[in-house]
Amino acid sequence: MVKYKDIANKVREQIYSGEYPADAMIPDQNSLAKAFGVSRMTVKKALDILAMEGLIYRQRGAGTFVMKNALMAGRDSLVDEYEGLTTQMKGHKLVSKAIEFEIGFPSEKIREKLMVEENNPVYKIIRQRVVDDDLLILEHTYMPADLVPGLAKEHVESSIYAYVKEELGLKFGGAFRQIHADKPGEYDYKYLDCGEQDPVLEVEQVIYLKDGRPFEYSRSRNRYDKRSYNVIDVKQDN
Amino acid sequence: MVKYKDIANKVREQIYSGEYPADAMIPDQNSLAKAFGVSRMTVKKALDILAMEGLIYRQRGAGTFVMKNALMAGRDSLVDEYEGLTTQMKGHKLVSKAIEFEIGFPSEKIREKLMVEENNPVYKIIRQRVVDDDLLILEHTYMPADLVPGLAKEHVESSIYAYVKEELGLKFGGAFRQIHADKPGEYDYKYLDCGEQDPVLEVEQVIYLKDGRPFEYSRSRNRYDKRSYNVIDVKQDN
DNA sequence: TAGTGGTCTAGACCACCCC
DNA sequence: GGGTGGTCTAGACCACTAA
User: Fold this and answer.
1) What is the CA angle A231-A233-A236, rounded to 5?
2) Residue among A91, A88, A7, A9 at smallest CA distance from A42
3) Secondary structure of residue A158 in the 3-state scheme
4) What is the pTM of this model?
5) Pairing of β A56-59 and β B63-66
6) Could you identify the residue whose CA is nearest to the C1' atom of nucleotide C10?
């Protein structure tokens, strides 16, 4: 539908397929524009995408080159975290078991994170996430009830995100995450099979809708020996 | 110098100063184009920057709005990690004490991370990072010696990045990071004041130059009770 | 000096939201 | 239907690199 995305996809495929080998120069923007039958601006916009992904780099006056290693940007490694574990773990067996699924009034900390009032009810959910029969995560989730009407245990045990996105039609805008290491607590002993010496990797996040309303506050407590958190960072200017 | 960056800076200031209040609509692109005396494409490019920063969101057909909370994108919170701790901790007292500073041949793991040959010497550095008299990080760093000629203990104890950037003129392209929780080890007991029960937050990263050559592999072992890792994530499309 | 990528223009068409 | 943002064009000028 959109030309610059099509072009980005085609060039990306040519890189992955080895048609443009690592460290080699790819055709200049004018040639690509002619080849694709578009204007040069459109080609540049396509290349901007690949540069953000870390696949190419450009040097004014010299040309456009394929990254030596493509910054580990494996074909399907860049799944948006907003999609939830269900999407990330496609191809694996994911089971989510609800330990708690309640609705109530928010504590002060939750009010602050979700920017809601004292009398605005929130869901409180605790889930075990089991991937391929491996217990990996204990997740504490809070969501304003008015933003997610009709949430049921069946959604909680399959995919909350799918419900929110497809049934309710809400759109995610971004997230703010803090990643800590922590000592295990009572819940971790009980529901994450943690020993007393086992650290926990906690991802504490607030997810926002497109208009900036906080939509979810959660603490994902990960088994330290089975999960890590990856960040790919591509510098923009220089 | 560049118009779209100027415009982005000006609008950003207007948002921070409250001239465009949270959740309010800002002038449409045509008005801004007239006001700044540029074409609409240039205005859009400026707004693209602010959208990537999470300051505004746009709705086709409706308008451009200031984010309710600006995704916590505080004025100076978005320091690039490539700059190193020295820059991040501007305004604080940072002391880096070298525990080890050696040069030698790389192990297989290091060869793989830095993509160097067996006979290509690498620096091996272990540093304590103390911020405002607080011991926060124990950092194990490896760098190919040929990429950083003339590195001396004086740079290691002040800022390696400043040396690399300003003296050698190298440009960073990006980084790949993995964040784990880990149990403490011998080095952590000795040099990070860790107790046997204290988890460690480890940031393992490879930093790449602009052309994709790996430039540094490091493991930053952080005091779990004093440091966390923050990620701001703004969704692009929809 | 020739060729590259970065920026900018003036205008056009379209998809979408809201009245 | 009127106004919004998203895309695209054809051409221009500039900054930079490399031969």
Assistant:
1) 160
2) A7
3) coil
4) 0.90
5) unpaired
6) B39
